[in-house]
Amino acid sequence: MTQLTGKVVWITGASSGIGEALAIIASKRGAKLVLSARRADELARVQALCADPAKVALLPLDLTNFSPSEAAAKARIFFGDIDVLVNNAGWSQRSMTMDTDLEVYRRIMELDFFAPVALSKATLPSMIAKGGGHVVMVGSVVSKFGAPLRSGYAAAKHALAGFTEAARAELWRQGIKFTLVCPGFVQTQVSVNALNGTGGSHGIMDATIQKGMLASDCAERIWRAVESNVEETIIGAEAKLVHLKRFFPGLFSYAIKRANITK
After folding, report:
1. What Gene Ontology terms describe where this protein resides (cellular component) (predicted)?
2. Distance CA 97, CA 249 (A)
3. In contact, 236 and 181? CB cutoff 8 Å
4. Domain-wise residue ranges, the chain
5. What are phi and psi of 121, to 5 degrees?
6. Architecture per CATH, 8-238
7. What confidence tens digit (pLDDT) does each residue in 101-132 have?
8. Which of 10, 145, 153, 185 is catalytic?
């Protein structure tokens, strides 16, 4: 079991949405937190919402342009070695394949795949040295299937899932646990901030996101999975689509081709 009380937890993408909710709940459970995101002012706002702001350190980071080793070294300065790393930062996408610049795919892969891999690799040596640690990868239901307007996002999240499975199989003897969480629709700014085909912001709150699960409920389920050492969990009603694809692939293919994903 991975108990949060007294543990040092590093959360990326902690300035809003799921990351903010994860921070607030972990603080209530007695964790010491290192929070990272690009916006220092928003990190400070989240810090003030935590149960014990004195046990919350802020480490602003742009995960598209950073030194993983330097970031990991700075994170350890606050409270010591990291016990739980939560790779939550990421971009979504809202653009058709043929309308998406190649550079947009590169940007999505940089933040949604290469950044969590780099940060994990920079943090793992200290976890291994002390005999254990837990890496949480925040994927998506599109870690399990592709969907319209998400070709780059689905590709990055598929890659993240593959990396997580392989790393877990390699490092379990060293006491390293990996949890892949795959949320469906959650009430965050993910669609507003999603990249369009030319790299700008989508700027629209999707109705499916607006009607989705509360970020606090999603975060609670993530922490329950981590505390129970669950290796993979799909969060939300969208889990039924994963089961549909597995057991009725033809029906799933028919449905996803005709889905209006943004409504």
Report:
1. membrane
2. 22
3. no
4. 8-238
5. -65, -30
6. 3-Layer(aba) Sandwich (3.40)
7. 999 999 999 999 999 999 999 999 999 999 99
8. 153
